[in-house]
Amino acid sequence: MVQVEMKNRALLPTRYSGRKVFGSKIKCGDCGSFYGSKCSTPSYSEEELKEFSLKAMNLLITEKEEIIYNIESCMADICDIKKLKAKQEEITRELAIQVDAIQALLDNFINELQNLDGPIAEFDEVLFGVMVSELEAKNDNTIIFRFIDGTEIPIKVK
Fold first, then answer.
1. How confident is the model at residue 24 (pLDDT cuts 50, 70, 90)?
2. What is the pTM of this model?
3. Could you tell me where the DSSP H helices lie in the chain?
């Protein structure tokens, strides 16, 4: 799972903060920048965010069959490199790299989701890194959890 997390970090469009597990995942729902003291959205401790993460991931588990079905239905089109061959060679090479990364990311997501058979009792940083792409803290005390597959789960926290 460590190799999976390293690959996932390489795909991040922004910086990765190794100091805190939420550092490169949570952004402000008002301004769109990384979440911090300059934001007007509510402030949450790392323990609170871990608790909210467990709640969001446990809700994701309840929908795992539908999510996996939707991902698998889309993967054939997204990952079909033969369709990309008609484009220029340079573009095709770049797309193949991205397609491989997306397929690996979604395969890892599916594998981890399939391995979750019930509620998660304890926060797992590696699992969080594999499953969650970002968090968005909103002014209304809601945190939106965006999972790797695009699923969004809002968690009302106060």
1. confident
2. 0.53
3. 2-10, 46-62, 64-78, 81-84, 89-115, 125-131
